[in-house]
Every structure is written in structure tokens, then in C-alpha cells.
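ok so for the tutorial part 2 we go from a plain amino acid sequence to predicted C-alpha cells. step 1 is just haveing the sequence, like this:
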Amino acid sequence: MTYFSEREKGDRPREFDTIGEAEWGGIQALLRARIADGSFGASFPESCPDGAGPIGADEASLWQAIRAEVPNFQERPWYGTSEEPPLTLDILDLVEFIWRYIGKPVRRSYHDYFEHYHLNFDVDAGRVEFREAVNRIFRRNGLVYELKEDGQIERIAPPVLREALMSTEFRTGDAEFDRMLGTARRKFLDPDVLVRREALEALWDAWERLKTLDGPDKKVQATAMLDAAAGSTSPKLREALEREARELTWIGNNLQIRHSEKNREPVSRAEHIDYLFHRLFALTTAILTTRERPNSR
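step 2 — the prediction. this is what the C-alpha cells look like for a chain of 297 residues:
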């Protein structure tokens, strides 16, 4: 489902990584509604006193499970008595928890004496409906998160990087290099900024290994790969690529990316991580797609 404004103007830019009061309130409302209609009876059933099957959800059991699996919650998240939203990572963990244990209730039979319905549960349908609802909250509020079909939340990369990250697949023939690059891309999409910092380390390690894919002498091989990337008819571009390569190597050696000494400047802000990752990923991609023996698509 999309709204009129989205159909007229397109989606809102996805640029916020902190879940605020309004978005948290929307997620709480979804949770309360699913508790009320018995959706969590798929995993935490409240049973009919006559033993005829589930009639809803056992709220106390649900809360015990949340406390065990998302332990930073100090109160039942559907009550919302705290003035400030929980930490964003805790909210995202809760969203994954909900997806894992939810199911769409289907009325089976009516119990006249107790005046309740006995229920079956369609787990797949419940997960789909919840996923659509929570992703709509993320989308409408410009949040950089998406609940995927497997129940895991991914961070949406900045638009300029998103297509390259999703569509580029390198098979260089060097398993360790391909692993480093895959690790970098996977960690860069993680909601946790600390994991995204690890993506920088993996990408810079891949960059250093790239210089040795065709021979052990880094200097010689770096010259050759930059020559190939620029081509013989673009000497000024060749100069620019060399400056960029030198600068990125300097960044990797002087910031806390590949080295953790106290005199190295840390990279902690999300926008700085995005900038540095994009910069090196773009150069790496340009080089790999123009090697003499390209194995990329």
C-alpha cells in the first residue's frame, strides 16, 4: 500500500537511522493490536479451559520471552510509560522478535459457554502482514531500515550506493579477496554502526589485497591496475585515480580502520562511515571491472 503523496512525489528519502517517538509509537500500536487479536497465540497460546485449543495469546509468557531475548527492555513494550523511546537497536531486535513469533489468527469454532473462539494460526500470513506494516512505518518516516522476508532487518544503503551494492558481484578467482569484499558489503548493511565500522576494515583489507592479485609487488601491480582502469587515452583521469588511490591508502593507515593505535583518529559517525565506504568501494569497483581478465558482472 502506498499513500497519495508517495504516488505523486515518490518515496521520502531514507536518511534517518534513529527511531523517534512517533515511529516507536507506531510500532507499539502494531504490537498492541497483535496482542489484542491473539496473533501471538501461535507461539504463546492462551488455552480454552475445556482444552479445545488456543483462544488467544498468553501475555505473561510473551513478556517473559521478550525479557529473555531482548533483555534491555525493562517494561512491557506495549505499555509505553517511558517518555523516551528505547534505543534503536533494541527496537529493531523487538521487531525481529515479533516477526519470529507472530501468526495470523483464524477463527475455527465458537465456544458458547465461554463466549470465545478457538483459533488456528497462519504463521506465513501473519509474518507478511506484520512485515508490510512495519516497513510502511520505516518508509513513511524516512528510516534507513527494512524488514526482509527472512525476518532480518537490513539497513538500506544511501541511494547512490544502493544499486552498486545490490547488483555488483565479483568473482575474481581469489577466494580470500572475494570473501573480504562480501564481508564488507554484508556488514555495511547492518543496522549497528559498530558493525558498519567493521565493514570499513574489511573493505580496506580487500583494497590492500587487490594490489597483489596479479603479483606480489604492490607498487608494480598498483601502477598496472590504475593504468588499466584509466585506459591509454585518459592521462588526466589516470593522475586523478593515482591521487585517489594514494589518499585512500593514507586514510586506511591513519584513521582507526586498519590500525587501532591510540594516535589513530576514530571513525564513529554514521555519515563518515558511509562516505569512506562509498569512496573506496567506487574505486575498487572501477578497477575490478576494467582488469585485463574481468570476472565481474
